[in-house]
């Protein structure tokens, strides 16, 4: 494992990698858990060299959000990455962990990437600038690493959708691969934000995956019935709970074969994000 804190040193190293090498990028904000490590495992299984970026991207946090509080655990993260690398012989991991956002964005930036169709719906209603920040940093990371493949979790479903759309819209030469949501034994999706939860809150948090699972077993092709089912479970703690067509993230239509239930459930001050895909073709 090699670790770089400065972009210039990283770029010098990357220049020496032959262009035929299979490479995979795993972008993260650190505080690595088994969800992140599952992404790295997939990249290691496919690519000769895997890149892991560890960077808490200020652009994707609004002024009122938890940027300064976001857990930073670089030493532990590096141990986890190294242990995963050791399980894969003849594979190399390169970590980029910039200490300053200038290493990614330079000292001033004015060009950002925004999806005007899909960036302001669902999660984008609650967090209007969020996806612009995500797409801008992911684009920069793609330019820095020029990976053949990049790995993202379905946990951030709309984010994955937007990143795929960006690579298509901007003709980026990178294959976007994904993994299923990694969960704790009780069903709660793994997240760096779970550690903010008290014991009591942790119990309440299970309402999120349990409700999604229950709804998934009931929803079908009738949009009105689906909406009634959703309204019946929603209370003030649901920031949103929406049903969308997995093809386009739009409302379901007669042509819809598969849907995704996307939700943010608030427990205390913590926003928990989750989703579930459901095939409704034969329902
Ligand atoms: P983050 O560090 O939160 O920006 O996440 C980095 C990557 O890990 C993103 O592609 C996430 O979708 C993915 N990820 C985070 N949590 C999970 C999880 N529980 N299961 C699968 N992927 C995840």
**Secondary-structure content class:** alpha/beta
Helicity, in percent?
Answer: 25-40%
Arrangement of strands in the largest sheet: 1-4-3-2-5-6
Q: Ends: how far apart?
A: 49 Å
Biggest β-sheet, characterized? 6 strands, parallel
Descriptive notes:
It is built from ten helices and nine strands. The strands form two sheets. Strands 1-4-3-2-5-6 form a six-stranded parallel beta sheet, with helices on both faces. A three-stranded antiparallel beta sheet has the order 7-8-9. The protein has helices spanning 7-15, 34-46, 74-86, 102-105, 123-126, 130-145, 157-169, 199-205, 207-218, 223-233; strands spanning 2-4, 23-28, 49-54, 92-96, 149-153, 175-179, 238-245, 258-267, 270-279. Strand 8 and strand 9 form a beta hairpin. Helix 6 crosses helix 7 (157-169). The model has no long low-confidence stretch (mean pLDDT 97). With 283 residues, it is an alpha/beta fold. The chain is 36% helix and 20% strand. Adenosine monophosphate binds next to helix 2 and strand 5.
